[in-house]
Amino acid sequence: MKSLLLNVLLSISCVLLPYLISSSKARADDWGCQVILCLSNPGGATQYAECRPPIQKLWNELAKGHSFPTCGGVGLHSSRPGYEPYYCDAGYRLSGSYGPRGEQATCVSTSLQRVNNSLCSYDRGNYGNDSNAVPSPRWLRDGGRLQCVGYPISRPNIRAQPHYIDVTIDGVGAQRVWY
Fold this sequence. Notes:
- The protein is an alpha+beta fold.
- Helices cover about 25% and strands about 30% of the residues.
- Strands 1, 2, 11 and 12 form a four-stranded antiparallel sheet that branches. A three-stranded antiparallel sheet has the order 4-5-9, with no helix packed on it. Strands 6-8-7 form a three-stranded antiparallel sheet, with no helix packed on it.
- The longest helix has 20 residues, at about 1-20.
């Protein structure tokens, strides 16, 4: 991913920098070009002080429902804004369901993990305790020993910036931008 972003930054810099510094007069599309350069920075869109004003303006414009800015000479496409308030740690996937309080998100392990033996039942008529902390717990033989395994769940993390757009630059690549 870093190499893709670096390629994006280098490609855009070669095209845009001479354009942006060729004249001291401001152009109508300078803001869009600044946004693209800043978003292409592998260190983050607001790593440099010069990028903070155009990126803050971008967030404000997108929050109002305005479209992504354009930059002359660059084939740029952006998706409609999206919203994902939750994310999971590595090794877990986001899963949603509807409960008594509406939609509820959880993170479910993507691989079987060893869990507490009390979650698995020795009695065929009893399917373990009613805890929803580990869906589908079961016994698994490992090297001649039985182990209780399942797919543990955890609470999702809440994003500081839950809105996003997907930006694609022709011939360079795509990037999801959170705001």
